[in-house]
Amino acid sequence: MFLTLEGIDGCGKTTQAHLLVERLRETEKSCGGVVWTKEPGGWPGGEKIRDLVLRDGLEHPLSELFLFLADRCEHVLQVIAPALKEGKIVICERYTDSTLAYQSWGRGLPLEKIEELFRWCGFPSPDKTIWIDLPAPAAYHRMAGRGRMDRLEEEGTVFLEKVRSGFSFLAERDRGRIVRIDGEKDISGISAEILDTVLAFLHQ
Ligand code: TYD
Q1: Which residues have C-beta atoms less than 6 Å from ligand 1?
Q2: Which of the following CATH numbers is that of domain 2-202: 3.30.365.10, 3.30.70.100, 3.40.50.300, 3.10.180.10?
Q3: Rounded to the nearest whole angstrom, what is the distance from the C-alpha of residue 153 to the centroid of ligand 1?
């Protein structure tokens, strides 16, 4: 079972991923284990690519795209594929939908080219994707309150709203896989909804 969590910066993914992992470790004791991971940088050595892509002054949208893809190639090979092979539940914060939403809707790169690269790279498809949807201004305020802004986040609400419309398009197109959760609810409401969705899928 390969599960991804998606959404714009500041939507609450990290909090929700941790709650979900905790709950699944309690309820799914009979499965081979629950692995939490994230992109970019979720493999040994991945911090270097993460720093490069998030902090250094990249100017070409393709350099950014290829760094995210290189990061994912290693992440899939070293972490995701082995865990899935061992029958574990893998929960990954951000994956291919982030690349489509940020690099296509955000940066203007063509969607079909990026998807062609995904196929060429042989990335496994998530079984289920939770999209925590929050309007950009709300997400932006949360991040500003935390004093945590990286390069992409500093581009602000216009950029994030474009990315959000990307997630919205993908959720409509891939509605069998992507489930939209209202990110404006409180933390425990969101967490209960995510857990229900995941358990229903696991035990169908
Ligand atoms: P991160 O600090 O992990 O943000 P968050 O905690 O919100 O997930 O930064 C990841 C940033 O990288 C985020 O702005 C989204 C962006 N990103 C892409 O643009 N393309 C991608 O393929 C991925 C995986 C992330």
Answers
A1: 9, 13-14, 39-40, 54, 68, 93-94, 98-99, 102-103, 150, 152-153
A2: 3.40.50.300
A3: 9
